[in-house]
Amino acid sequence: MAAPGPHSVLYKGMMLPALVHSTESLRYAQLGFQVRDRDIFSVTYPKSGTTWMQELLTLIHSDGDPQLAQSVPSWERVPWVEQTTAAGFLENRPCPRLISSHLPCGLFPTSLHGSNAKVIYTVRNPKDVCVSLYYYSKMASFLEFPEDFGEFVELFSAGKVLFGSWFQHVKGWLGLRDRLNFLLLTYEEMHQDLRGSVERICQFLGKPLEARALDGVVENASFQAMKQNRMCNYSLVPENIMDQRISPFLRKGVPGDWKGHFTVAQSQAFDRLYQEQMQDVGIRFPWDEA
Ligand code: A3P
């Protein structure tokens, strides 16, 4: 997304797809939406495992039974608080409400602070996020982007993509982790040990599952199972909005795909920026070890 075009909303310096966002929906999310103590938020920078967490939370709350996950679209089960449909989906929903958000912490519902709501923040190697967002921008007609991957890396590095800078998003949320009911997960650990990650989520939510229910969650949230589930693979979205012949929404589902896309020079430049931006964060991520 090079510049705000006809498909974008510009809100407080951040570009968002106008298809599902408006100035009003963003204002409502920040100021009008009333967070409740039993709310459960899944917060992600785009392409970091949002859909995966929507599936996991649904399945955990259904004790591993896939019926709901296979009959109601993911965006309705775990709706985004910033989208135009949020009030309709969420206001009359009983607790615990499962809620998604891509908002940076500065634009998040202010009533989160002082509440007992839980926040699960999922973070992914930014180089893989960049690759995933590049293909998503290609297949989604509401996103503008340069065909040249090198140019896209520059836009991503400068935060000139939807929801702004990855660095600002991650640093902002991690800065709040001691002040909130907060669980930090990485896409990479979910990929390496899905069962263990589900157990961590269950423990955080205070919702222990029996072994059979846990099996149900893990089976139905695998990449293959999700690819087949029309309620989360985005095949319900018309082709003129998301053309999955160009690139499937559930594309590869692995860590490290960046290695086949970044040149050595692009990778080194990004690493320098990463060091500069992340040196004070004080957390080692799985990709820092590589
Ligand atoms: P890739 O494009 O690298 O394949 P989001 O839901 O935040 O938009 O993120 C989408 C990314 O998460 C895509 O990455 C998608 O394939 C991946 N993903 C979704 N479900 C997954 C799963 N069950 N296992 C692994 N990756 C998954």
Describe this structure in words.
The protein is globular. The chain is an alpha/beta fold and 290 residues long. The strands form two sheets. It has a four-stranded parallel beta sheet, sandwiched between helices. Strand 1 (8-11) and strand 2 (14-17) form a beta hairpin. The chain is built from twelve helices and six strands. Residues 44, 46-52, 128, 132, 135, 191, 221-223, 226, 250-253, 257 line the site of adenosine-3'-5'-diphosphate (A3P).
Order of helices and strands: EEHEHHHEEHHHEHHHHH
Give me the secondary-structure category.
alpha/beta
| Side-by-side strand order of the widest sheet | 4-3-5-6
Mean pLDDT score, rounded? 96
Distance between the termini: 29 Å
Number of strands: 6
| Poorly predicted regions | none
Largest sheet: 4 strands, parallel
Unique bound compounds: adenosine-3'-5'-diphosphate
User: How helix-rich are the residues, as a percent range?
Assistant: 25-40%
What is the overall shape?
globular
Radius of gyration: 18 Å
Q: How many alpha or pi helices?
A: 12
Strand portion: 5-15%
What descriptive keywords fit this protein?
two-stranded antiparallel sheet; 4-stranded parallel beta sheet; binds adenosine-3'-5'-diphosphate; 12 helices; 290 residues; alpha/beta
Secondary structure layout plus pairing:
Blueprint: E1 8-11, E2 14-17, H1 23-32, E3 40-44, H2 50-61, H3 74-77, H4 86-90, E4 98-101, E5 118-123, H5 126-139, H6 149-157, H7 166-174, E6 181-186, H8 187-192, H9 194-205, H10 211-220, H11 223-228, H12 264-278
Helix pairs in contact: 2-10, 9-10
The structure holds adenosine-3'-5'-diphosphate.
